[in-house]
Amino acid sequence: MPQSFVGAGWSFPLHTDSTGSIALSTGDKEIVEAMRLILGTSFGERPMRPEFGCGIHDRVFDNTSSETFAAIKRDVESSLNRWEPRINVLEVRVTPGEVGTSLLTVLYVDVRYELKGTNDRRNLVFPFYLIPEHEE
Questions:
Q1: Domain membership flag for residue 122
Q2: Whole-structure pTM over 0.85, yes or no?
Q3: pLDDT for 126 beyond 60
Q4: Which structural domain range is residue 17 located in?
Q5: Which of 3, 37, 55, 126 could form a cystine bridge with 109, CB 3.0-4.6 A?
Q6: What CATH number did the domain enclosing 68 receive?
């Protein structure tokens, strides 16, 4: 992929490189970091751009159901299509992971995407945690 198309941006999380300058991400790494930033930001988290992010964070307390999986899938597709213009989202799958404790359920959000202008298909797996209602 041409560097001019992808560009360069500050690494996420923000840190310095060996020269003391702000570390930059380029190429494929920059796109993956941008996608993770979109999915990891909840709506309203950025005061100057409250519409930026992804609605999955509103679902943290939802139960583990096919309706929740479908809603997460819609949220991810919508946000990535809006905020990451360098990719085509091909498919989003939401699958439950192993249950570590009774207080958390991990869902794996598998995003299959293609870099625009290429036949380069990739995937990103984003873990998302539900905290289901717990009766005592």
A1: yes
A2: no
A3: yes
A4: 3-130
A5: 126
A6: 3.10.450.40
Mean pLDDT (whole number) for 56-85 = 94
Torsion sign across C-alpha atoms 44, 50, 53, 58: positive
Helix (H) or strand (E) holding 21: none
Q: How many beta carbons lie within 10 A of that of residue 50, not counting itself?
A: 10
Query: 75: buried, middle or exposed (CB in 10 Å: 19+, 13-18, 0-12)?
Result: buried
In the sheet with 87-96, reading across from the earlier edge strand, the strands are 87-96, 105-115, 121-130
Domains identified in the chain, total number = 1
Q: Other C-beta atoms within 10 Å of 93: how many?
A: 14
| 123 domain-assigned | yes
Q: Tokens in use for 68?
A: 């929740």
92 lies in a domain? yes
